[in-house]
Write a structure and sequence with these properties.
Keywords: DNA-binding, Transcription, Transcription regulation. The chain is of the alpha/beta class. It has eleven helices and ten strands. The strands form two sheets. It has an eight-stranded mixed β-sheet with strand order 4-3-5-10-6-9-7-8, sandwiched between helices. A two-stranded antiparallel ribbon has the order 1-2.
């Protein structure tokens, strides 16, 4: 008996339009005209005998029938994609496309990647760097690493939001079908070059940092004011007139002796350990966000994604062990 199924093109048009709630964006994604999307959905509605969308003046919304049908179609597409990937990648060299924040890639991930290649010689990691919110529907990405806050997440009853520097970066454009794993905390600490501290009295409290030039981040405008507030000091952000676009830029400025940068400790760790940067005041505050591993929900347990995720967790745990060992050694001195 032949199956009674709609056309694949019509289903793709429906899924994209339902996800975007916009026929024009669905058309852009599928490289067709808006009229083609409208016709495909109209064919579906006529075939089913029920409306899938409610056409309003400037927008569209799913009807009850559309809301009921969407998860079924999406699940079917996910299963087809998974099965296809398994067939394509069987007995083949596997490629993993990873979209990462630039400074995280340069300072944390790339120095460790050779170890992943040794452990998984059959997986080729292709890195792409970007600070834009990731969109798994539009981009050919398997895994992304972003820093921020998961929408509607609970910070925990023991967390005082006022003591956490805000982070306004958006991690994903569309959170549907996205799974997030917390990788690392975003712990902010002041750093500068040793030369900058020459001739400067030892800093004992946050207020004393105001005697030094402070380096700012365009993407973290709240960092210094919130860090000072959490330290019990009021700071007027209007006092600065220049900001850097990336952490690697502000770190380079700090290395050049331009001022004090407020950065995630893990990104400055190599330079601190090498003596190129110093921490003028051992006072750190964890921001409201964290570094997360993002992937498609239906690919989260694929062999390639799971191998990379588990390796990242192992690297994190090793870093924490080394940090604890170093702290114990310092305590014994």
């Amino acid at each position: 008996m032949s199956r009674r199924l709609p056309s694949m093109n019509a289903l793709r048009a429906f899924e994209a339009a339902a996800r975007h709630l916009n026929f024009s964006r669905a058309a852009e994604e599928l490289f067709v005209t808006q009229g083609a999307i409208s016709r495909q959905i109209k064919l579906l509605e006529e075939s089913f005998g029920v409306p899938l969308f409610r056409r309003l003046t400037r927008t569209i919304e799913l009807t009850e029938h559309g809301r009921e049908y969407l998860p079924v179609v999406r699940d079917a597409f996910d299963r087809i994609e998974q099965a296809t990937l398994r067939l394509v990648n069987r007995d083949r060299h596997r490629i993993l496309n990873v979209n990462v924040l630039p400074t995280f890639a340069m300072r944390w991930l790339i120095p460790r990647l050779p170890h992943f290649a040794i452990e998984h010689p059959d997986i080729e990691v292709r890195l792409i760097t970007s600070i834009r919110p990731v969109n798994f529907w539009r981009e050919d990405i398997d895994v992304a690493i972003r820093v921020g806050v998961i929408p509607d997440s609970d910070p925990g009853a023991d967390v005082d939001p006022a003591m956490r520097p805000r982070i306004s970066l958006q991690m994903a454009e569309d959170w549907s079908n996205v799974r997030a794993y917390r990788l690392l905390p975003d712990v902010l600490v002041p750093v500068c070059s040793p030369e900058l501290m020459k001739g400067v009295a030892q800093v004992h409290e946050a207020r004393e940092l105001l005697q030094l030039p402070l380096l700012h981040m365009a993407t973290r405008v709240h960092a210094w004011p919130d860090w000072f507030r959490a330290s019990g000091v009021e700071y007027d952000i209007a006092a600065h007139n220049h900001a850097y676009g990336h952490f690697f830029m502000v770190l380079d400025a700090a290395l050049a002796g331009r001022g004090v940068a407020l950065v995630p400790r893990m990104l400055a760790a190599p330079d601190i350990q090498a003596g190129r940067l110093v921490v003028p005041l051992e006072l750190e505050h964890e921001s409201a966000g964290a570094y997360h591993i993002l992937c498609r929900e239906h690919q989260a347990d694929s062999a390639t994604v799971r191998a990379f995720r588990d390796w990242l967790f192992a690297q994190r745990d090793e870093q924490q062990t080394l940090k604890e060992t170093a702290s114990l050694s310092e305590a014994d001195l």
